[in-house]
Predict the structure.
Amino acid sequence: MILETAAALFRDKGFQATSMKDIAVGVGVEAASLYNHIKSKQELLEQLLLVIADRFTAGMTDVTASSLSPKEKFEQLLRLHIRMTMEHPDSVALINSEWVHLAEPARSRYKSLESAYERDFLTILKACIEAGDFQQVDPRIALFSTLSTLRLLPIWYRKNKDISPIDLEKHIMQCLVDGLR
Amino acid sequence: MILETAAALFRDKGFQATSMKDIAVGVGVEAASLYNHIKSKQELLEQLLLVIADRFTAGMTDVTASSLSPKEKFEQLLRLHIRMTMEHPDSVALINSEWVHLAEPARSRYKSLESAYERDFLTILKACIEAGDFQQVDPRIALFSTLSTLRLLPIWYRKNKDISPIDLEKHIMQCLVDGLR
DNA sequence: GTCTATACGCTGATAGAC
DNA sequence: GTCTATCAGCGTATAGAC
């Protein structure tokens, strides 16, 4: 309950602009009472962000370990982001800007997980190109463009809940893979 | 000097986590001295974000008023974002998350400019589809995907300055319009 | 577990001397 | 214009009664 409340507030107002009082009001207790359940406000952010980072990392591990084709792996990653967005919309939304407020050593651990994730994603993208499934695009820009869409998905999805996961996947795949033309 | 320093700090640490002392140190004066040049910290954020919003709006006005084809208009908007990113990298980076810290009435004005911009962008996208330049994608998702890439560009560009604007435009256009396949 | 009371550093901002 | 001094309020977090 505390974590969920904090996630929603961090998403709306940002970590720094959210006070323990804000969270307490959301939960329905006094601010001091929160400290019977958590160690600090910082701990809340670490919980939220690192759990998400670990899940994305686990998802990536599954995909890379699989015997799927590069293009199927790419599709699996799309599904991973869509699933994560649906299941944890608030905490996934935090990955775009709130990680800067992580204190060390959590911040380094988080950035290291993120780097590894992007490196693996890039490897799969390059394999798609080599296999001839994707055309000869600049893989770094393809990764940037793809990840931009996937990372901002929770923000967009909030205002567009009237779409099914299947349609969402189909349309995003179409935009990213087939392009607009 | 104050505005530039503030923009860089807001980008790195966020508006709330940046103190007037931080800005003063960056400028090289005492915090109190800043108030001889600005009214408040809030005013700094409003200056930065609304100037950017106004420029995007002006760019959109030029594009819509032009006699270009829908697809050429789309390309012009891509160039607008790339140019803005190159010319004002720090303040353009703020549009992703820092607008939440705008106080009223600036916040409403900002959101209203943003809405109008997205509406006009969507209109152009739909015209591209109707003209047969783009395939039958879901225009809302195409807009979301395109704008995601363009909005996160300043963040990506910071770590990838070794690319020319021309190449950047070519590659982004290729990813977005032609897709990966 | 909950609460009230409190510590105390930092914040944005002002006053006033130079 | 700059500075030093200062204020009032809010922030996180703790102590201790119940």
